[in-house]
Give the backbone structure.
Amino acid sequence: MRSAIRIGTALFFCVGSFVSPGQTPPAATAAPAQVPSASGQNDRDLTSRSPSPDTSPLGNDSRIDTSKINLDVVVSDKSGRHIPGLALTDFTVLDNNQPVKILSFHAYEATAQQPRPPVEAIILFDTVNTTFDAVSYTRQQVENFLRANGGHLPLPVLLAWVTNDGIEAQSEPSVDGNALAAQLDTAEGRLRSITRSAGAYGAIERFQLSTRLLDQLARTEVGKPGRKLLIWAGPGWPMLDGPNINLAGKAQRQIFGEIVELSTLMRVGHITLYSVTEGMPGPETFLYQSFVKGVKKAQQAGIPNLGLKVLAAQSGGLVIPPTNDLAGSVKECLQDSDSFYSLSFETPPADGPNQYHELKVRLDKPGLTARTATGYYDQPPQQAAP
């Protein structure tokens, strides 16, 4: 599907998985990237999309239950310390500022007396949107994190790479940080500069590739048990925000469709997205904050609404400013697995497709804040297939 995006006097065409509201998204045009396991077999595919255009998180995918919303909630105090031990009565969920009945509640806490919460971390090294030197430094910092504490990781970690050819994983998730670090030492072949068009052409190309791969990865996690902490190690793709960038009406509808799709896939797949990158804060570090408010209709949709940091904030994750202590950034993200809460509630009837609902979680204790998904798109009841 093509959509026109006018930048200055040049006209570009977006070709990707954008869908109009109410449509089912097309199947991927690129072949899925197979991921070799330690045994050499292709057993984990991180970029496979549904085999048919009729299988969609917004269509008739049997894995998608749009009648109930499940939230993973992290509670912290003013110092940022995570707070375990709360009860159901401490929580109020507001859907469009209206309290809803909580159907299920579970408190997770990592202690010696009980097993680890069902959480997996995926650390993605972005080789598409950054330089060779930045990727190399990021790899060294992640290796430092993996080898800390004698190589004992608090949860299973999967290492993967965002490349021109797709998302490539090192192996299956592991709690052996030393073994994962050793695998990083063999990954130097991936530390290469990505040759792309300069200027707006290259920016659009990187935006399209990055968002498509995120969409495809999210699809693979739908239906898999447990929570996933997805740490995107890199600055993210261009936000393409500026006075010379204009979207036609059709392009806005298609961008809106992709916003709905990614929001739904990450929520249903229990994916919390995190943004970490090396370097120092600059003028554009906090630009994303202007776009974190949920998009209610296609006429409000723009390319910056699909920015990495925007999606991370909306998923309930963290956007950590650029720093030279990436090992510390990764550790901070993974602390979200130490204690959190899972809540669910029933969605109200939707009059039509893609109705945006703002979400807030209020706590019955002073000085505490809750971090979770900031909204969802309600859908009419799915009709049974004939």
